[in-house]
Amino acid sequence: MIRRNINLLDIVVAVVVVATALYLYFSGVKKTSVDEDQSFAPEEVKIVHGIPRLSDGDSLHLQGIKVRLLGIDAPELHQSCNKDGASYPCGELAKQHLESLINGNEISCTSTKTDKYDRLLAKCYSGDRELNREMVKDGWAVSYYDYKQEEAEARKQKLGIWSGTFEWPHTWRRAHPR
Question: Any transmembrane segments, and where (predicted)?
């Protein structure tokens, strides 16, 4: 029998090898219980297309499904803004602008999630034009995280709602609950 002196390095290497093996084994095991953790499930992509019916500048109905344009917030339909000391219906104008971008054409919306109102949160396209981005770029919606550069440029050029003053849509909604 050969006797070997065990030192601290040998113990550390053995522990690391065993820990790595256990990690690899358990991280690759598929759960089969009814309460399976859905956080590892692949996102389900939902695509809808057709001629939309608009609700306002960032919400629409498509094939009977409610859709909210992801990453933007447009003035509410009955919201007013101010320009040159006068009030104007910026919510209605935002809706009209989205309508002009669509121009009666079929659109396609891609979504991986819904909001608390069970609306699809989606990026929508009319041809190769991304409607979400265009609404912010043209100044008729503010960025909701995704389009900061477009918002900064619209603000700089004083486009759409940036040509005057306005209450942020989320603030206006809080002050005017349905």
Answer: 7-26
